[in-house]
Amino acid sequence: MRTFANLDELAAAVGEHLGHGSWHEVTQAEVDLFADATGDHQWIHVDRERAAAGPFGAPVAHGYLTLSLIPLLVRDIYTVRGLTMGVNYGLNRVRFPSPVTVGSRIRAGAELVGVTDVARGKHAVVKVVVDIEHHPKPACVAETVVLLVP
């Protein structure tokens, strides 16, 4: 865990790779819950038998599920002290180069791309690469924007 004492210290780290988080196994239960929450019950995600015979040999997580796991995956990579809150502000770019099959383990790496002043604090832009264990291509590459309020 990389700890920044304040926003100025964070800003000084622009351009640096902040590290990698812990591995997380993607389960069928998570996929099913996400399907229920979003209404996306496509067979490739929730029908285990059909998905096993499909193009990936197993059910795959929704790309947006992988994206939604980013806060979990980066929480042990870095922290900034002295904040009243940090709020997801949005995304600049997102890609899903490889599917995540159920039972796979994923983890995130984070690179601090930029820190800019805004009215309530600072926007931190972090490039997050979600890797799949034993797979050459990442599951997700996303440039996240977080509002950090001192």
Automatic annotation (TrEMBL):
Residues 11-130 form the MaoC-like domain. It holds the Pfam family MaoC_dehydratas. Belongs to the enoyl-CoA hydratase/isomerase family. It comes from Saccharothrix australiensis. It comes from the Bacteria. Signal peptide: none annotated. This is Acyl dehydratase. InterPro entries: HotDog_dom_sf (IPR029069), MaoC-like_dom (IPR002539), NodN-like (IPR039375). SUPFAM superfamilies: Thioesterase/thiol ester dehydrase-isomerase (SSF54637).
